[in-house]
Predict the structure.
Amino acid sequence: MSSMESSRKMTHILLVSFPAQGHINPALQLAKLLARRGVRATFVTATHAHLVISTAALAANNSSNNDNMNVHFAPISDGFDPATVDIFKPDYPQHLQEHGSRSLADLLLSLAASGQPVDCVVYNFLLPWVADVALELSIPSALL
């Protein structure tokens, strides 16, 4: 095996979660489990939730708990100001789909361009449009 083949990138799984605690926690636990198994795990959610999670992850990395150290975090837009967003408004899912699908596609293309292409996108049941974005970019996807 050549050195190029032996240094082949690790598998990269991108997990997309609806930005509510009951959806974030299981997806984040899966991301941590994958990272501990040597998979590059990128956890993605809407900007307002991303800000909270990435701040908490940074604090955890600076403590004795290093579970988050190998999980990467990235936001997608839901079209709302993070300071005033209300995920319980009836139009929130539509905004998240409209803005998040473009933002997710941009993120996936950016990761590929930076040499970290995503091998599979995992999403939860409130985000079925994520599968469409992945399909458009020829990336396999899985429903969590």
Notes: The longest helix spans residues 92-113. The two ends are 35 Å apart (CA to CA). The chain is about 45% helix and 15% strand.
